[in-house]
Structures are given as structure tokens and as C-alpha cells.
Write a structure and sequence with these properties.
The chain is α/β, with parallel strands linked by helices and 363 residues long. It has eleven helices and 16 strands.
């Protein structure tokens, strides 16, 4: 047994320091990035996006959400239990959007990230790849410290040598190195930080998200690869913080909950509308996907009602605006340079919440 005494930080512990800037307007800040990688096919690949990702949660990593996200240059990490027919339909519809919007073929489809675990067959994704040439693949496991994840990564690099391969979840640089050297292009960083996650309550395992992002980003960037900060963002400012700490992508589920496009049931109580939200390891999610929860496991996910908040585009606009404004405060013209420009204060409080519980005027 050992105790690591180095202080561990979360997003709420940090605030960006405003500094000299030559940016006169937030519209001058570019929040798109181009990501490049050498595939296992020895060919150079790339895609361009706003590196904001929807989590592969039930109702979030879903077609209605995906179609809005990709047309706004963001990524949708698809929930992992879709059939070939469902995925094929989504890719077909997104291909139609490319024609309607007169963009280069593949521009939107490259931002659809199918997901698989360690138990499912690759057959559905191989069939999808044969028809649509999928650009990316996510191997999603709550605990990516188990040996089977490395085996799965190596298998995926052989079956999809061209794909931008992601695996997770982890919180330490040592495991980041292991997965990236096994063939991943990016790792997902988070254990227990998600809004609908109960892992920390049940297991006391995890790591504060800011420290995890810093540690894993250093490892990935040493290998010229990438990390995804997955979860822990309670507001737009936390998304800014994740990028400024070194994250290349930020994944969120809670920020998109309650939107029109969230594919879960809408409930009305006392004249107010809510959407059902559930963690992937919740009993409700396990019932939906597997027809019940295995006797050897506990529910590590919350099931909650989140207030309805209208179209997804409103949330995206708020996040985009926050990113551009932050860039103007720290003097970063490009999102990829946020980390180079960032200086932080360590704080005990970041927000004034005096009116936090008041009813909003906005409908």
C-alpha cells in the first residue's frame, strides 16, 4: 500500500488567468482543429472538426443527436448496441446531408464514431466499414485497465487499419502509454467523473479530472497522439478548462441532456417538462440493453430527470461562444493553442451562485 500525497485537482479548483491579447473580437478565434494520424495501413489520414464529442450514452449517442452534431462539425460517439440496419440508416441520412449542404463526401460521416465494448463481435462494424468506410472506432470499457482491452485494441488495428482508434477509460499516464503504444490514436480519460456515474460512490476508485487530463495529455503528446477528456464538465467553462489543460477532444453527456434531440422519454410534472437520463451502467440502461442486470454487478449509474432545455443548437452555440470568448481572454487565436496560452489560478470557488436557484426568464 502507498499513499500519493501530490495534490489532485478538479475543474472547479482552477480558473484561467486573463492576459494580454491581440484579439479584438471573439469571432477571430478558430475552434476547429485538424487531426492527423498514420494508420496501421501505413497511410496518412486526417479529419477536421470542432473537437466536441457527445458521449455514447443511451439517448445521447443517438441518431437524432448525431445528425445535428455532425452538421455543426462536432462528433457523435454512437451508443454501442445499434444494429447494422440502424447504423446503415444513419450513415445514409448523413450522406444525404452532405449532398444537401454541398460539402465534400465524408465530411459529416467522418464525425460519426461507432462504439464497441470487449464482448461484442466486430461483425456489425466490419459490415458497416465495407459499405461506408468508417473513419473512427471507439473501444469503450469503464475500466480499461483490464488485460482484454489491449487485446481488443490490437485486434481492431488489424481489422480497421485506417481508423482513428480510441480506447478508454483510464486516468493515468502509464495506462495511456500502454494503450497508445498498442495502436490507439487517442485515449478516453475519466473514471467516475460523469454526472450519471456512481463508480466513485460504490468503489472509491477514480481520479479528479483536471489532474487526470494533465497527466494523460503529457503522455499522449509525447507520442504525438491525443486524449479525450470524458465527463466532469458541469458548464461551458469546464469545457474550456479541459482544452486549456491539454485535452484534444472534450466528451460530454450531461451538457446535452434535456435537449429536443435526446432520444429518451419526455415527462411532464407540475407543468414542467423533463427528459429521462441514465448512466450506461444504471439498472434502467442494463434492462434496456441486456434485459436485466447480472447478479454479480451493482448499478454504477444514476437514473434522473433533467429539465427540458430546447433544441441542441442552442447548447452548441453557448459552448462555441464560450470557447471563442475564452480564446480572446487568453490571447489564443486557435483552439489547439489554448494549452500553450493557459495560466491558471488555483481557487476555492469559481462561480457566483446567488441567483442559481431562481427561475429563469427564458422559456
Amino acid at each position: 500500500m502507498r499513499i500519493i500525497e501530490e495534490e489532485q485537482l478538479d475543474f472547479d479548483d482552477l480558473m484561467l488567468m486573463p492576459q494580454h491579447s491581440d484579439i479584438n473580437s471573439r469571432k477571430e478565434v478558430c475552434i476547429e482543429r485538424t487531426f492527423k494520424w498514420l494508420g496501421n495501413d501505413n497511410l496518412q489520414h486526417s479529419f477536421t472538426c470542432i473537437p466536441l464529442m457527445a458521449a455514447n450514452m443511451i439517448g445521447i449517442g443517438a441518431p437524432a443527436m448525431a445528425k445535428v452534431l455532425v452538421r455543426n462539425k462536432c462528433i457523435c460517439t454512437l451508443e454501442k448496441h445499434y444494429s447494422f440496419e440502424a447504423l446503415d440508416k444513419l450513415f445514409f441520412e448523413v450522406a444525404d446531408f452532405e449532398k444537401i449542404d454541398n460539402v465534400e463526401e465524408g465530411t459529416y460521416r467522418n464525425l460519426l464514431f461507432p462504439t464497441i465494448g470487449i464482448k461484442e463481435s466486430f461483425d456489425v462494424l466490419k459490415q458497416l466499414d465495407e459499405k461506408w468506410h468508417i473513419n473512427a472506432l471507439v473501444i469503450d470499457v469503464p475500466n480499461a485497465y483490464i488485460p482484454k482491452v489491449v487485446e481488443r485494441v490490437k485486434e481492431a488495428t488489424q481489422l480497421f487499419p485506417h481508423a482513428f482508434l480510441v480506447a478508454g477509460n483510464i486516468v493515468t499516464s502509464e495506462r495511456a502509454y500502454t494503450l497508445l503504444e498498442a495502436g490507439c490514436q487517442a485515449v478516453k480519460v475519466n473514471i467516475g467523473a460523469g454526472s450519471c456515474c456512481l463508480t466513485r460512490k460504490l468503489t472509491n476508485c477514480g481520479r479528479p479530472q483536471a489532474s487526470a487530463v494533465i497527466d494523460c495529455a503529457n503522455a499522449a503528446h509525447n507520442l504525438h497522439k491525443y486524449i479525450i477528456s470524458d465527463g466532469g464538465c458541469k458548464n461551458e467553462g469546464h469545457i474550456v478548462t479541459a482544452f486549456a489543460l491539454g485535452a484534444d477532444f472534450v466528451m460530454t453527456g450531461s451538457m446535452f441532456m434535456g435537449c429536443d434531440e435526446m432520444e429518451t422519454e419526455t415527462i411532464e410534472r407540475n407543468g414542467k417538462k423533463f427528459k429521462i437520463a441514465m448512466g450506461s451502467s444504471s439498472k434502467r440502461a442494463q434492462d434496456l440493453v441486456f434485459g436485466g442486470m447480472s447478479s454479480y454487478r451493482a448499478s454504477e449509474g444514476r437514473e434522473v430527470l433533467v429539465p427540458y432545455k430546447g433544441p441542441l443548437i442552442n447548447t452548441l452555440s453557448s459552448i462555441f461562444g464560450g470557447l471563442r470568448s475564452a480564446g480572446s481572454y487568453i490571447g489564443a487565436h486557435y483552439l489547439k493553442d489554448f494549452n500553450k496560452h493557459a495560466n491558471f489560478y488555483k481557487v476555492s470557488r469559481t462561480l457566483n451562485n446567488v441567483f442559481a436557484n431562481c427561475e429563469s426568464i427564458a422559456k
